[in-house]
C-alpha cells in the first residue's frame, strides 16, 4: 500500500540526508506506530486531516483523506455528531492546538484528562503538533523549489514589540532570556521529557529530528537557525522556547544585541538585511495558515542565502511549530 509518506517523499528530497531520514522516521512514529493501543491509526489520521484543513493545505489533506472512510465527516464540523464523542473531543482539542496553542490552557487539559488517559492526551497532542510541522515543511520546500521570477517581498512580518519600542533601554541577554522551568499539566510535577515519555516512540523520533535540524552539519549558520527558532517562538508566544533559544543565539553568534532587539523591539529594528529576512520568513511560516510566499523566498536569495540555506531555514521554523505547541499546551513555563 502506498502511504502518505511515499506520496510526499518528493517534497523532502532536497533536505539534508540526516534531516530527511529523521523526518521520515518521525512521520512513521506519529502516524503509523507499531503500538496503536493509545490511539489507533484512523484517529491519528483524522487529527492530522483537521490540522491540514485549518492550515489550508489541500494537498496534504487529500492525501490523508484517502486513508479514511469517514473523511467527509471529519472535514465538516457540522457532521461531527456522527463521530464518537471521544473522537469529537480530541479533534476539537487538536484543532485548537493547531490554530493557536496560546488558547489551550490548563482547564482544557484538565477536562480532557477526565475522559482520556495522560498517554492519550500526549499522543493526540503530538499528532496535532507534528501535522503542524509537516504542512509548513512541505509548503515551504515547495516554494523554495520554484520561487519564480519577480521582485522580492518587502519586510512585513510583525512580532509584538516590548518595552524597547516605547523608548526604554534594551535588556541585557540575561534579562531578556531568563532561566525557565516547565511544569507539566499532564503529569503532576513532571518535567517536559517525563511528560513526553508517555509516548516514548514519538519522543525519540522527535528528538533525533530536532537535533538533525538544529545542530546537524547544515548550510545555514547555527546562530541563524537559533534566530529563526526565536522568531517562531516569539510569534507563537512560547516563553520557554524564547528564553532557551534567545540565549543560545547570543552564545553562538557572540552578538548580544540582535536577539534582544528582536524580542523587545520587533523585526523592524533589525538593520542587517540578511538577519531581517531570516526572521521574517520564519515568521511567515509560523502563522496559521502560513503566509510564506515565493516573493519571500526570492528575498532570502537576494539577501545572500542559497537553496540549502533556505531548506535549513524552512526546517527550523517548521520544527518549532511542533515544539512550541507541545510546550505551550501540555504544560506551563515559569521563571526558574
UniProtKB/TrEMBL annotation:
GO molecular function, one term: peroxiredoxin activity
Short name of one Pfam family: CMD
Highest rank taxon of the organism: Bacteria
Cited SUPFAM superfamilies: AhpD-like
Domain Carboxymuconolactone decarboxylase-like, first and last residues per copy: 203-250
InterPro entries per the UniProt record, alphabetical: AhpD-like, AhpD_core, CMD-like, Uncharacterised_peroxidase-rel
PANTHER family: CARBOXYMUCONOLACTONE DECARBOXYLASE-LIKE DOMAIN-CONTAINING PROTEIN, SI:CH211-175M2.5
Protein name as annotated: Carboxymuconolactone decarboxylase-like domain-containing protein
